[in-house]
Amino acid sequence: MKIPASFFKLVGLVCILPVAIYMFALARTVALYRECREIEKSVSIVADSASGIPEVDCLCRQPCLSNGALVRSISAMCSENGVVIGNYVPKEEDSEGDMRLFSARLELAGGFVPLLKVIECIEEHPGGVRIVSASFRRLRDGKAGYTVTLDLWLMQLEERI
What we know:
CATH architecture of the largest domain: 2-Layer Sandwich
Largest sheet: 4 strands, antiparallel
Number of domains: 2
Oligomer: single chain
């Protein structure tokens, strides 16, 4: 008994085609949907557990930007690594009550890796200074090669003393 070709076409349309559509079009969508649901569950769990943590009043420490203490603390490290401190401009952005918000622009020049070490030193500084922006530029330094300059914008919330 010979099976007609139309029967194979019908079996292909009914059985094989839906499996192929799922594999090629829907499998990734379903996997992403499941992953999204798992992330939503974990976010809600973390949010519920974070609500029990008491808030910290202020993360202010000793003033570092307003009086130049940050520059003094990193100057030795800069000189060891061949980084030149070009310009330091602190500015009081806002104040309310006993709190003052200071920003500062710090210009540094040197090699790329030593500049990264300076950034790491500033981030680990105990004064609560935050790096708002970092902008690297590469400048041609005659026939000797290139010099990298770094413009850092820093902020710190300080208590009025």
